[in-house]
Automatic annotation (TrEMBL):
This is UMP-CMP kinase 2, mitochondrial. It comes from Cepphus grylle. Belongs to the thymidylate kinase family. GO terms for biological process: dTDP biosynthetic process; dTTP biosynthetic process; dUDP biosynthetic process. InterPro entries: P-loop_NTPase, Thymidylate_kin-like_dom, Thymidylate_kinase, UMP-CMP_kinase_2. One of its GO terms (molecular function) is dTMP kinase activity.
Length: 252
């Protein structure tokens, strides 16, 4: 049985662990009840703290489902002869459905742990080639904020709130690109794909306020901030725009 949280940070910050020690503590608290939490913790404990990036650029792609992340990341990876990584990383992704059914603080600890484990993979990969990442910390933060805060965009934490800050102990990418498309076009793409929706994807489709909170949370992230890319044009045009941004912001 999970012990009660002691008085401390406000609920939003408890739902969004903001450093590796907080992630480890959250996983320890539920490991007896959720064996997979212990397995994730074991992997996390093996990761060195304060990972350092190699000499090649690290580019993250963020955005809602059906904004073209899978297509664009694969194309960029092929064009740059890079290495493609995803969050949560492959070593824990098989447990994603288990944690998706847990209360928000435990669920977010899983995704946060995935980011720190992924950082270890990024550190190694970026010594070999450009690294392209399909989602990273910004997704964890944006969905947590949008889930924990009800109401409209103006009800979100203010622009300079600490919830939008990148964790100090997590390896930073060189560039974060936020792919966006018109809401109707995104729903059309989802229907065309015919895939089973996650709980959050169903919420995005049914609740325009939730979608707006997620997108606005992405836009408020800092250090690094997201560079927004309109992913509505053809995949060739989007790839051209993305490559121009990478050339502008990264040393290749």
């Amino acid at each position: 049985m999970l012990r009660r949280c002691p008085p401390g940070p406000p609920p939003l910050l408890r739902a969004l662990p903001t450093a590796a020690p907080a992630v480890r503590q959250r996983l320890r608290e539920c490991a007896a009840r959720i064996p997979e939490a212990g397995a994730v913790l074991d992997l996390l404990e093996k990761c060195p703290e304060h990972q350092k990036k190699g000499g090649f650029p690290v580019v993250v792609f963020e955005g809602l489902d059906a904004t073209g992340k899978t297509t664009v990341t694969q194309s960029v990876k092929d064009t740059l002869n890079g290495i493609l990584l995803r969050s949560p990383p492959a070593c824990i992704s098989q447990w994603r459905t288990i944690f998706d059914d847990e209360p928000a603080p435990i669920k977010r600890a899983f995704y946060a742990a995935g980011n720190y484990i992924l950082a270890s993979e990024i550190a190694k990969a970026s010594t070999q080639a450009p690294v392209i990442i399909d989602r990273y910390w910004h997704s964890t933060a944006a969905y947590t904020i949008a889930t924990e805060i009800n109401g409209e965009v103006q009800d979100l934490p203010p622009v300079h709130d600490e919830v939008y800050q990148w964790p100090e102990d997590l390896l930073k990418p060189d560039l974060v690109l936020l792919l966006t498309v018109d809401p109707k076009e995104r729903v059309r793409r989802l229907q065309h794909r015919g895939l089973e929706k996650t709980k959050e994807e169903a919420e995005l489709e049914a609740n325009c306020l939730f979608r707006q909170r997620v997108e606005e949370s992405y836009r408020r992230m800092v250090n690094p901030a997201c560079q927004e890319v309109d992913a509505s044009p053809s995949k060739e045009e989007v790839l051209k725009t993305v490559l121009q941004l990478i050339k502008k912001h990264c040393a290749l």
